[in-house]
């Protein structure tokens, strides 16, 4: 049976979800229960073979000092940048009230081989992050998946205990919005869909 009101409400949540970066986050802390709600939604993502490969580490409050240390590791080996790197890593880690690392740990068989392909595991983690982001937006929290630079640096991944074939896929940073909620557009669906009937 089609439930129009459920479908409308889900569609509304999908359209409402926006990516809002560090400059759009208030420094105010976010209630632990709200973050747990987002993580619980993430945990309901589908995964082929029920491998549930998503792994998250939440950094908030003073816990962000250890995140700053991780970000610093991304600069290790470049001594000319040490002081500045330390300062910018600290500034960055404390620029969002909540950072959630997005890890992928593939399911393994008893003999250590992978249960599913790495592609399938990555797709499942993306589903989990979409659930998390949808829930954040529905709660009214601004956030964004960041997947470049120190957010995916191998030294940061190592610091989080994610060694190959595990992967660090970035961070979801979030907080209460400091600006108006953003709007967005999409190019027409017709450019992306071909019907064969
Ligand atoms: C896998 C993934 C990685 C992303 N990485 C970044 C990033 O590193 N930096 C960034 O500014 N936005 C990043 N984004 C956010 C996109 O820029 C954003 O989703 C896109 O502009 C559409 O905006 P919307 O999410 O508000 O609909 C990422 C989004 C996804 C799905």
Task: Give your account of this protein's structure.
The chain is α+β, with helices and mostly antiparallel strands and 197 residues long. It has one domain (21-176): 3-Layer(aba) Sandwich (NADH Oxidase), CATH 3.40.109. Helix content is 38%, strand content 14%. It has six helices and four strands, in the order ααβααβαβαβ. It has helices at 4-16, 32-43, 64-73, 82-93, 118-139, 154-159; strands spanning 54-60, 98-104, 142-146, 167-175. It has a four-stranded antiparallel sheet with strand order 1-2-4-3, sandwiched between helices. Helix 2 packs antiparallel against helix 5 (118-139). The longest helix has 22 residues, at 118-139. The chain is globular and about 60 Å long. The two termini are 24 Å apart. The mean pLDDT is 95.
Index terms:
197 residues, binds flavin mononucleotide, single chain, alpha+beta, 6 helices, globular, NADH Oxidase
Provide the CATH top-level class: Alpha Beta
Question: Which ligands does the model contain, each kind named once?
Answer: flavin mononucleotide
Q: Specify the overall morphology.
A: globular
Q: Strand-and-helix sequence, N→C? A: HHEHHEHEHE
Mean pLDDT across all amino acids: 95
CATH superfamily label = NADH Oxidase
Structural class category: alpha+beta
Helix percentage range: 25-40%
Terminal-residue CA separation? 24 Å
Number of strands: 4
* Strand content bin: 5-15%
Number of domains: 1
Rg calculated over all Cα atoms? 19 Å
Summarize the entry for a quick read.
By secondary structure, the protein is an alpha+beta fold. The protein contains 6 helices and 4 strands; from the N terminus they run ααβααβαβαβ. The protein has one domain (21-176): NADH Oxidase.
